[in-house]
Every structure is written in C-alpha cells, then in structure tokens.
Amino acid sequence: MNAFKVAILALGGTIAMTKSEDGGVVPTLTGEMLAAAVPGLGELAQIDARTFRQLPSPHLKYGDLEDLAGEIIRLDQAGCRGVVVTQGTDTIEETAFVLDLLTDLEMPVVVTGAMRNPTVAGADGPANLLASVQVAISSEARGCGCLVVMNDEIHAARFVRKMHTSRLDAFGSPASGRLGWVSEGRVFVGSRLERPPTIPLSGLSENHRVALITVALGDDGTLIRALPPGQFQGLVVEATGGGHVPVEVADALEVVARRMPVILASRTGAGETLSHTYGFPGGEIDLQRRGLIRAGWLDGLKAKTLLTLLLRHGVTSVSDISAAFEPWGGGSRR
Ligand code: ASP
Fold this sequence. Notes:
Elements: E1 5-12, E2 17-19, E3 25-27, H1 31-36, H2 41-44, E4 46-55, H3 62-77, E5 82-86, H4 92-102, E6 109-112, H5 125-137, E7 146-150, E8 153-156, E9 161-162, E10 171-172, E11 180-183, E12 186-189, E13 210-214, H6 222-225, E14 234-239, H7 247-257, E15 262-266, H8 284-289, E16 293-294, H9 300-312, H10 318-325
Parallel strand pairs: 1-4, 1-5, 5-6, 6-7, 13-14, 14-15, 15-16
Antiparallel strand pairs: 2-3, 7-8, 8-11, 9-10, 11-12
C-alpha cells in the first residue's frame, strides 16, 4: 500500500462537465469519478477523492473558498502528503490566490482544471489531474504555497493568469514565468518563492464588496462617481500603463479615496505600478497624493482578491491596507 495520502477535492468546472439536456455542458462528475478516469493514479498515492462543491467556477464565492481552506488545513493536520483541488479554469487565478493567502502549509496545495471537457476529443482533465498529483506528492513542491498545474506547467498562485479562452496552454505567468514543469512524471521546480504573509482564517466576516474598474481611453470618471454610496467597501482601479488615468478620473478617484481604500493596479497584466516616475496630473505620483495605494506587481484581480480578504478580516484602515500591499511591491508613497 502506498504511504502517501493525497486528497482530491472537486469543485466542478469543465473538468467535471458533461452534456445537459438543455444543451451545453454542466458540472456533473464527482471527485471519485474524476479520479477513477485517470490511469495509474492509485499507484502514486492513496487517493481520497470527493466532491466539495459542484459549480461552474464563476459561481464560487469567498465563503466556499474559506470553507475549502479550512478543509485543506484539516487534511494537512491529518497527515495528507498533498491536496489537489479541481475546479473551473475561469476563476483559478483568483481562487488559487485566495488559498495561497489563507493557508500557510509545507504541504503542497495544487489547483487544476481542464480546458476541454470530458466529452470532446483530447480532453485534458485526466492529464492535468495526474500531473497535479505528481506535483502534490513531490518534495520539490513542498513549501511553495498554492500552485496551479495546467498543461504540465507549474505556476505560482500569485502570478498565474488565464490568458486564453480555449487553448490548452491558456495559463501563463507573464510577470515572472512559470515556476516549474512536469516531465515523464518528474517534477522540476526552477525557482522558489518566499511565502507571502498569510491572512488568518478565523474572524472572517461576510458582505464586503470591492469594485474593480478598468480605465480606458476617453473615460471621464462617470462610472466611478456613479458607485452607489455604501454598497462597496473598496475599489481597485486598473489604470493604464504604470498607473495613469485621465484627470477627470483622478478627480473622481480622489473623492472615493476619502471614504474607502482605493488600490491602483495596472491594466497591462505584468509589472509594478510605478511610484515616482511620472509627474503629470493623473500620473502615479499625483494619484498617490490623492490617497491611492499602489498594488505593486499584483494585477487587478489579485489586488481585488487581497483587498477583499483584508476587508473580510476586518482590516479597514488605509495605513494597515497600505502595509499589507508592501510585501507585493505596493503600498502608499512615503
Ligand atoms: N470554462 C470554465 C472551465 O474551464 C468553466 C468554469 O470555469 O467553470 O472550467
């Protein structure tokens, strides 16, 4: 009997989808069925596969992921060698980062999915699940935090992005490159990252909404001014380039920043928000003077994830939120 125990927790997604009578595919396959479809999985580890949720991934909520993080921590305490989460790929770049921020474990936590559902030729779910279990039991992946394994590539949760709607190589880490890869069942980790500061799972509260707005050519701040009072507790703005917006947008952001944290991210998808290069109105120096907090190298989605978890954890002051963005290269200008 294999000594390693690996838990597979299935959340739904394309990897678990089959045809519905109404047309289109919907999540129906259980965790047990996903594991049973992978030849050789039982030779790697004792697999405990089960269904945790059965949803398309845009339907997942922060509460689901907090429950999942709690279950992962319990599995670690119970002596699991690794945990693999299967889910829809649409939101993996956010869910994996949530798990990364909520768990601080030596045990590998791997998130995977599929770009092609099990009813079509060349479905990639079984290969992704096999590679994920190989990563989950490997010593190379220990202490690396939450990883995303797709298409035989290993990505860090903090960097990974879904960059294509349908191709098998949809996932990439444009800011940093992949962390490693899997070949002939062997796991290679080319670079290791420091663990990010984690957010304790206890004391999280519901009902914190963070708005995410991308700025585009010709915007005049109308959408920002139209944010309904009291409905949002934070705002992430994906600005152009290194963190730049039209002057009218800067005026609108300054007003919002007086009543809630406003995080300045870049819509480019890679690279830091700048801190002290551009001096024009609506540039990053001006926006920081107006109270905005730089996201550093977190993209808009990751910045929204971090801010949401901070607010759910009761961190609301601008100085504390600014300090929480510092390890990611962001924060307020000093
Ligand atoms: N297209 C998605 C997927 O890859 C659907 C989802 O995210 O649930 O699984």
